[in-house]
Amino acid sequence: METLRRPVAPRDCDILGHMNVAAYIEAVSDAMFGIQTAAGLDRGALAATQRSFVAAHIAADYRAEMLAGEVFTINSHVLHVGTKSARFGHRMTRLSDGATVFQAENVSVFFDLMTRRAVAIPDDLRHALNRLREAQPDET
Question: Do 73 and 4 form a contact (C-beta atoms < 8 A)?
Fold first, then answer.
């Protein structure tokens, strides 16, 4: 599912003229809010429960440069749902030519924002994530 669409801003680029590593990771972070929202963990639910997924690990594969002004999309997928964490896949595509320019997998821990500790993913969220996982094509 598409979880993010935006242009590369000049501030996202480094001295080499292409999108900086930090901007790719920021885009994945933003895409995570898209997939959380699709699972029912939107801004209101996050505020009410004081719980959210937080990044624990990311593996990234940079495939092509992105330049300022180019528009990209990120499609995100639920890959696995565990007890306190889940694994997600993200594919960044350049809109102009459809090229896959970046892929990442991340493990995010379900986190209590008050106690600052990992907690079990509640059943309703687990079911929503598994429904998303089952509804998507079998790819990363």
Answer: yes
- Please name which of 60, 51, 94 lies closest in space to residue 75, comparing C-alpha atoms: 94
Can you give the pLDDT at residue 140? 45
Phi and psi for 99 in degrees, rounded to 5?
-70, 135
End-to-end CA, the chain: 12
Q: What's the angle, vertex CA 18, arms to CA 35 and CA 108, rounded to 5?
A: 25
Find how far residue 51's CA is from the centre of its chain.
17
Return the higher-pLDDT residue of 140 and 118. Answer: 118
Give the SS3 label for residue 28. helix
CA gap 29, 23 in Å, rounded:
10
Domains, the chain, in order of start with CATH, read 2-135 (3.10.129.10)
- pLDDT for residue 38: 96
DSSP 122: P
